[in-house]
Amino acid sequence: MKRFLLSFAFLAGSLVSAGQNPANADRTLVFVPKATNSQFWIAIWEGTKKAAQELGYREVGFQGVASAADVTGQVNIFNDVATSRPAGILIAVNDAQALSVPVERAIEMGVPVVTVNAGVATDKVRAHAATDNYQASALGARAFGRLIGGKGTVIFIGIDASSENGRARESGFRDTIAKEFPGIKALPTQHSLGDVSRGMNITNDLLTGNPDVVGIFCAQDNGGTGAAQALKQRGVKAGIKLVSFDASPDEFQLFLDGFLDALVVQDPFMQGYMGVYALDKVINDQPLEKKFFETPVQIITRDNLSDPEIYDIMARNSATLGIMKARGIVRK
To answer: How many CA atoms lie within 13 A of 147 on its CB side?
Structure first.
């Protein structure tokens, strides 16, 4: 496992490290996630802790708001963390504009900042570890289009209007559908705001008003979980295909039970892992050959879970690994 993680991270040559730095023993890093209400951010934190251990850091703190909709709360938490002057901060921002000034101020104070998963609107951040959200959503849209036979009315549930990731995923989905599946009509976007109940309500309302819907695409796990719960309660799953980003425990269980047809799965563990290696370079004023460190995306179906390249991504998340073990899913 360790050999795989190291070899993957080191595909980005600028992240090569000589090993533990004795000076790191007294250094603390802090990860500020978008929210604490999703296992996705815990998986990123697990990746940060693994890399920090390898590099000899004392610990990685975890401080975040309950909901990604709480932009002001995240700004306040980030400012408090920066004032405490940790060795470095990793952050997944909820609003690229709102966090730009606080991030710039922290860097000016001498606190290195690296973004993971969701970037910020400033050139002062030297590294960003994330998915290419446009391409990931385009990949998901192709799988979705094939599932519904390339025609029909569909629902798109986004994240929120201020989310950089959300905008990229909406563009990737809509551009791909318009270009490659002209027979598909996508209804106007509704935003789940990262809330399961809201995702469920949106799904119920749109299905009631649009009985011809044949598919739903969700840009985030909590929206996908809510949509799946709505389909489960309505008993209409057989006629509607559902594809969603990510694989939080509740969403993954619903997927295994047949209430989602495919998942667009990122690699949150590696986002955190690579983010810390990049942050370590910034802390120690070492060069980075590039700014964007892209992590892989896979389309997950119930038929390919045991494939090595799929299983390995899922297994790096302790929550999904536990579920797979409980279900008897093993690596080929």
So the answer is: 24
Residue 168 DSSP one-character state? H
| Per-position b or e across 186-204, b if 16+ CB within 10 A of its CB | beebbbbbbbbebbbebbb
- H or E stretch covering 245: strand 241-245
At 190-240, the pLDDT tens digits run: 999 989 999 999 999 999 999 999 999 999 999 999 999 999 999 877 789
Superfamily per CATH, domain 133-265: Response regulator (3.40.50.2300)
CATH superfamily of 2-131+267-296: Response regulator (3.40.50.2300)
For the segment 249-268, what is each residue's pLDDT rounded down to a tens digit?
Answer: 999 999 999 999 999 999 99
State pTM to two decimals.
0.85
* Separation between Cα atoms, residue 302 and residue 194, nearest integer Å: 25
Could you give the CA distance from residue 297 to residue 135 in angstroms, rounded to a whole number? Answer: 9
What ranges do the domains of the chain cover?
2-131+267-296, 133-265
Helical (H) or strand (E) element with 314: helix 308-315
What is the dihedral sign for C-alpha 21, 48, 69, 218? positive
Beta strands (DSSP E) in 76-201 are 88-91, 113-116, 128-130, 151-158, 183-186, 190-191
Q: What span, in angstroms and rounded, lies between the C-alpha atoms of 56 and 95? A: 32
